[in-house]
Structure formats: C-alpha cells, structure tokens
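User: Please fill in residues for this 312-position structure.
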C-alpha cells in the first residue's frame, strides 16, 4: 500500500489533508501504446510509516549516497515524495486501467482516506477516459489504495462497479488470499471494493502467465502480497513496466534489500526486487512507479552495485 496516509498516522504533525495535491496527467509512449497517469493524490510521506527504523535523517543520508534521488523522490527535509494514481493503457481498442486508488465514500481508518470526496472520475474524463470507456481494470494487488475506484456508491446506496463496461482482472492467488485475510487496517476493503465486482459477475481470475493483448501482459512479483503482479507493456521493440508496490519508492532501487513494513513476506519481496530490477535495468525499459512521485517514470540502469532511475 501507499504511505500517503502513513505520515498522517506517523506522529500526526507531519502531514494533513491540505498537503495532498493532484498533479496534472502524465503521458508516456511505448511503441504504439500510450500510457496516461491520472493522479488521485500526491503527498510527502514520512519514512517511518513505510520502513522500520528509517528516519528522515536516514533518508537524507541515503540520498547523499545516491544523489539521483533528489529532488524528484526525496524532499529537502527527508520525506519520501509519493503519489497515488491510475495508469490507463491505450492499446488498440483496449483502455486498461491499472490500479484504482482509494476511491470516494469508503469507510477507512486512515483519516485522509475516510469518506474521501475527490474529483478523480472527472479528472479521468477530462484526460479522455470517461468511466464507460474503460474496457479492463487490473489490480496489481488488493491493498486499500489499489482497489478503491473499482466500486462507487450506486443509487440504492450499495457498491456497484464504477466502470460499467470493464472486465475486472484479479490474480487468482491474490484474490483467494484477501478473501480470507483481514485488510492491513481491518477496513472492509475486500467487502466494499472487490466482492461487489464478483457479485456483479465482473471478476475475471488471471494467472501471471496470462496476457490481455499482444502488447500488455503480467509479470509475477510476489512478496509485497502473495499474488502481486507487475504489468508489462511491449510494443514496437520497446518495453515499459508498471511496478505496482513491489517497490514503493525509488530509494529501494538504490537498496533492493529494503523491504517495507507492508510487505507480506519481506524476504520474498527482496528476492523479487533483485530479480525484477536485474531484468528491467537494461538501459531501455521505461519503469513507471505506482507510488513514485515527481516524474513517476524513468529508465532503470545498474548503478553502484544497485540501480538508478534516469528521468531526464
Ligand atoms: Zn500502494
């Protein structure tokens, strides 16, 4: 999950809802495929929320050793610059929404997300993607900040699919796990944002080896959650990756061993990052972070025994 609400939970003095911004949409091109990012929020996050034992001073020390982290991903005072956004992949006739943020009207224990009332759907429409245009919804995993707009309040006050013409794709092991485990903060995330999709007969179970079309497929990246998927875009000899939360912040490129406190299996998450980063850091692949702030995306390259994201 994101740390966007975490800094609020972390000490209560370091962030409030007024800090949240909504960056303008960003667009990237991979061959014939366009990817548009629509942000729900962007907030500085205290590192203590995401990483056990990492202080803001510790973040600044890491940024001293990896200067490429500033200014895009680390603030001058040691906050991690993050966002929550949906990527819409336009591939042929497909309009594939990857991860659906926190959503509106949901009962959440995080004050920043509780009964949120944001203009996200208007922003999607303004960017060229009204809800009815979305053909597929993909959730990289089923944490609270990745499933929220799967549903919205219907006329009878029940939760209904937000995207009326979309197939919703869930990784089968991920769906099975969260169907029988409590959410991180004991909110009814599965009940209000996933189960209604199945009840509406819109849920499609996929495996990591499946693909949506010739340009869009999945990569298994478990550890953050049991069935976590990253999304792979291939077109015209080019490749792009949407990470999901197998890495929350670019600081983990500089230290792939750094697992977040929200990783279900920290050791598996470490192994996944080493393996995936080694694959992606070919100097050509565009890596789009699901919570990376600033430019959000860049070319990953090997650097000082780990990795770096080049964004310029
Ligand atoms: Zn997240």
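Assistant: Residues filled in for all 312 positions:
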């Amino acid at each position: 999950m994101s740390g966007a609400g975490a800094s609020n939970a972390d000490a209560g003095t370091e962030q409030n809802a007024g800090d949240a911004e909504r960056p303008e949409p960003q667009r990237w091109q991979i061959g014939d495929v366009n990817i548009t990012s629509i942000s729900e929020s962007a907030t500085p996050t205290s590192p203590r929320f995401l990483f056990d034992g990492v202080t803001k001073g510790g973040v600044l020390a890491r940024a001293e050793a990896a200067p490429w982290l500033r200014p895009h991903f680390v603030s001058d005072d040691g906050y991690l610059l993050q966002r929550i956004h949906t990527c819409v992949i336009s591939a042929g006739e497909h309009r594939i929404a990857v991860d659906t943020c926190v959503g509106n009207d949901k009962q959440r224990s995080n004050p920043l997300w509780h009964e949120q009332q944001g203009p996200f759907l208007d922003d999607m429409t303004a960017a060229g993607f009204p809800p009815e245009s979305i053909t597929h919804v993909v959730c990289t995993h089923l944490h609270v900040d990745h499933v929220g707009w799967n549903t919205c309040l219907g006329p009878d006050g029940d939760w209904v699919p937000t995207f009326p013409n979309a197939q919703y794709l869930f990784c089968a092991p991920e769906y099975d796990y969260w169907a029988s485990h409590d959410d991180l903060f004991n909110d009814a995330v599965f009940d209000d944002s996933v189960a209604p999709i199945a009840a509406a007969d819109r849920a499609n179970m996929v495996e990591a080896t499946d693909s949506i079309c010739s340009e869009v497929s999945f990569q298994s990246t478990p550890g953050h959650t049991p069935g976590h998927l990253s999304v792979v875009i291939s077109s015209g000899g080019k490749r792009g990756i949407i990470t999901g939360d197998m890495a929350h912040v670019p600081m983990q490129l500089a230290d792939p061993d750094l697992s977040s406190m929200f990783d279900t299996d920290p050791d598996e998450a470490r192994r996944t990052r080493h393996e995936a980063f080694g694959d992606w850091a070919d100097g050509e692949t565009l890596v789009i972070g699901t919570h990376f702030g600033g430019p959000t995306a860049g070319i990953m390259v090997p650097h000082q025994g780990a990795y770096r994201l080049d964004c310029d």
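For context: Residues 1-2, 143, 145-146, 245, 291 surround zinc ion (CB under 6 Å).
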